[in-house]
Amino acid sequence: MKHSGASKAEVTVLRDAEHLVLSVRDNGIGFSPGSRPVKGGMNGFGLTGMEERASSLGGSFRIRSTANHGTVMTVEIPLTGKGSK
Length: 85
Known about the structure:
- The protein is mainly beta.
- Strands 1-2-4-3 form a 4-stranded antiparallel sheet.
């Protein structure tokens, strides 16, 4: 909400035998995912940091956004293999 101007956000967490999927959807101003900075700020949970954390767990981080139509960020982490216990 800090950057998006969103008035609503929906967080969904789903788990099956193989994956944990976290999805965050907002109704904000959206942006062009390809135009985001390569390096995030010095602190916080910027998009680059979230992508790095998902990757370190063997997962994926996806962003779908369109100007004036909000954003959906999805993190999918495998429950088996790299990073699992």
